[in-house]
Task: structure prediction
Amino acid sequence: FAGRDGKMEYVWQTSWGLSTRVLGGLFLTHGDDNGIILPPKIAPIQVVIVPIESKHVKKNALQSARDLFLYIEPLKKELEGKGIRIRVDSSVESLGRKFNKWELKGVPLRFEIGDTEVDSKIITVARRDTFEKFNIQRADIVTYTEKLLVEIQKSLFEKAKKFRDDNTRDAASYDEFKKIMETTRGFIRAFWCEDAACEAKIKEETKASIR
Result:
């Protein structure tokens, strides 16, 4: 670029733009056989509410739907008022398909609300990271949700950190380095002469590459 004195100067800068590689790292770090598990801080939807249609013969569908709406709508507004990102799944899909869909998308918390929850003034809560399911009193749900999101965020971080640390090994010699690559593999901490030729040789002989 042209400086103030009119002379051409080199640009000195660092680019920290995010790419799809970051998403790959996220999926590999927090995914499981049921899909992705999104950390609450970056999850577009932190809580999904799944209404459950009435199975009571004595209760007509219209009344049940009305009761569910009157129970869910204030809850939704309370959570949104605390800055929690929430979605109500009122689609016509089957209950099993809904559960599977939101697990696949990695939503941290799922609230199941049907006649039982409305009558008992509770919320059935399911955690995506542990698949635990439990009942929480309606009066305590907002405070508990905030606490759970913090807990899930911390739990995912600690689990990922432990996995990384458990799979990082130190090599004091090249022979030890090669033995690790032939057995446990993972990350290896080792000295390097900072010569491209050494790096090429290591990659050729062990398939290891520098990070």
About this structure: Residues 141-166 form the longest helix (26 residues). The CA atoms of residues 37 and 190 lie 32 Å apart. The first strand starts at residue 47 and ends at 51. The mean pLDDT is 92.
